[in-house]
Every structure is written in C-alpha cells, then in structure tokens.
Write a structure and sequence with these properties.
This protein has 142 residues and is mainly α. It has 2 domains: 1-62; 78-141, 434 Repressor (Amino-terminal Domain), CATH 1.10.260. 74% of the residues lie in helices and 0% in strands.
C-alpha cells in the first residue's frame, strides 16, 4: 500500500496546478481584453490627430493677418530676414516687390544694411504671412 504522505502530496500538487491554471486563465482573458482596448484607443488617437491636422490646416488658411508692429519694438536681423525669405520661397526680387524695393536692396538688407523705419514695419508685418499669402501679394504687385 502506498504511503499516505506521498498520496497527500500528489493530491495537493494536483489541486494547486488546477487553481493556478484557473487563475492564469482569468489573467489571460483580462490581458487579451486590455490589449484590444489599447489597440482601439491607439486607432482613435491616430484618427483624432489626423482630424486635428486637417482643422489646423484649414484654420491656417483662414488666419487673419496680424497688425503691423511699431518699428522701434522690432528687432532686425539680416540672417533671420534671409531665412524668412527662403522659407517663403521667394527670390530677392520678388521679396523686394512686397516692399516696393529692388532685389539688390533686399540683398543689402541681408548683408547687414538696416532698412528704414517704414520698411521695418513692413518686414514685421510680413513675418505673419504664410507662404501662400506672400505669393498672392507678389502676384498682385507684379
């Protein structure tokens, strides 16, 4: 006859395995549910980001042009003027048309010559224009 201690030990191990299996099955189901919810939330975030980008893009086109600032408050930097001109994708000549000056004058400003107060106000005003608005103004003045 088998030893009662070994039979008891085997029975305890069998019951413990069954309990562990049932508990881990509950955790697996919960984990699967959570993963599905996380995937759905990620898809929703992507969708909302796309909608936000569309709304932002639409608002950028409808954004009003800012009022010109006082020339005394505007800090002029030749390098920033050149970067802004390139960001707007305008040649020096076309950029000059916005101010009623030649392309050479724009190159002089980019080389360190300081524009007059009237032109500083125009430059400050131009900083608020989008690329599309700037090209439209150049086309109007051509």
């Amino acid at each position: 006859m088998a030893n009662i201690a070994s039979l008891l030990k085997q029975e305890i191990a069998r019951v413990a395995r069954r309990e562990v299996r049932s508990e881990t099955e509950k955790l697996r189901k919960a984990s699967t549910t959570f993963r599905a919810q996380i995937a759905e939330l990620k898809r929703e975030v992507i969708s909302l980001r796309q909608q936000l980008a569309l709304v932002t893009k639409a608002n950028d086109h409808a954004r009003p042009v800012a009022a010109p600032v006082d020339a005394a408050q505007y800090r002029f930097s030749p390098a920033k003027l050149q970067r802004h001109r390139k960001r707007l994708d305008l040649s020096a000549e076309k950029f000059g048309r916005l101010f009623g000056v030649t392309g050479q004058t724009v190159y002089n400003w980019e080389s360190g010559t300081r524009p007059g107060k009237d032109h500083l106000k125009m430059i400050a005003h131009l900083r608020s224009l989008t690329k599309r608005q700037a090209h439209a103004q150049v086309a109007e003045r051509s």
